[in-house]
Amino acid sequence: MNKNIIKVGFIGLNPDSHWAAMAHMPALKALDKDFEVVGVANSTLQSAQKTAKAFNLPYAFETPQDLINSSEVDLVVVTVKVPYHYEFVKAALKAGKHIHCEWPLGNGLKEAAELAELAKQKGVVNSVGTQMRTAVEVKYLKKLVSEGYLGEVLSTTLVADGGNWGAETIADLAYLSDKTKGATMLTIPFGHTLAGVREVLGEISDISARMIKRRENVYITDTKKSIPNSVEDQIMVNGIFKSGAAFSAHYRGGLSKGTNFLWEINGTKGDIKVTGDIGHGQMTQLHILGAQNSDEKMKELLVPEEMYLEKPENVIPRNVFGIYSLIAKDIKEGTREAPSFQDAVSLHKLLDEIEKSSNNKK
């Protein structure tokens, strides 16, 4: 067996079109010189066995703790729903395992901060899945801004739709309408996209917000029943980056007939417009247009083809591939380049400030 291979165990992997199968597995397959997925633990042993058979994995563990304790697993990947992140991540850290967890790290700032402190004590590689930060288009956008395409950045404006958190959903996603579950429009699409925005433009030093719930109920299309909604479906935020540039954003629940992702950056020497099909910046194909002061109109700013080489063709696993590439380097070379639990806490704090700002206006 190749000792340079990092052996991966999943807590929460299902072959039936769920996120880990759609995003993580193709990303890891494209990094087969670094990773090998060896096992899975799900809510039941039967489910784990089904997944292991579907993906030809050698181990189906009876419980998540069995996976965590196994000497066959180097990196524990947690891809279950948000309320279970804390329990499984904490157990993996206590066992001294490297750990990758889907965003958000915890169900709220308190859980995330505790996990980040434990990860620091254990000294293991720890990462969180804010993969918009590693999107090829975001890397290119960051390069354009840093190299002065816009001159000095004056402001940025973001208008996007959450996709979910609209008038209708399906039973499998009904938990998104329960704020106590931690998977809200604020934490998921807005949080992911905010991570990407900060990757390009830096930290936000001051922020103010209003969050509004316009839909009291959500209709479940496959059960033909309505359920109560406790999640805000309108998020309006403004703030100031540490650079002094202005920031404004409006996230809307559901999908519109217009542009579902529009991000503009305005500077002293020009403007950039980034568009996508949905407000989940971590999973939409981004298109970049730009114009400098001497240009009559915007033109497409094509990402150099070499930036896509040896990466998955589909945008979702390609962005996740970016995170795993950094994880492999961190484990093998001792670097700390993947988005860490400390990075996650910083983002959790910003979202917490947004929520507190909105609550103070009620």
Automatic annotation (TrEMBL):
Signal peptide: none annotated. Residues 138-276 form the Gal80p-like C-terminal domain. One of its GO terms (molecular function) is nucleotide binding. InterPro entries: Gal80p-like_C (IPR055080), Gfo/Idh/MocA-like_OxRdtase_N (IPR000683), Gfo/Idh/MocA_oxidoreduct (IPR051317), NAD(P)-bd_dom_sf (IPR036291). Residues 6-129 form the Gfo/Idh/MocA-like oxidoreductase N-terminal domain. This is Oxidoreductase. It comes from Halarcobacter anaerophilus. The lineage of its organism: Bacteria, Pseudomonadati, Campylobacterota, Epsilonproteobacteria, Campylobacterales.
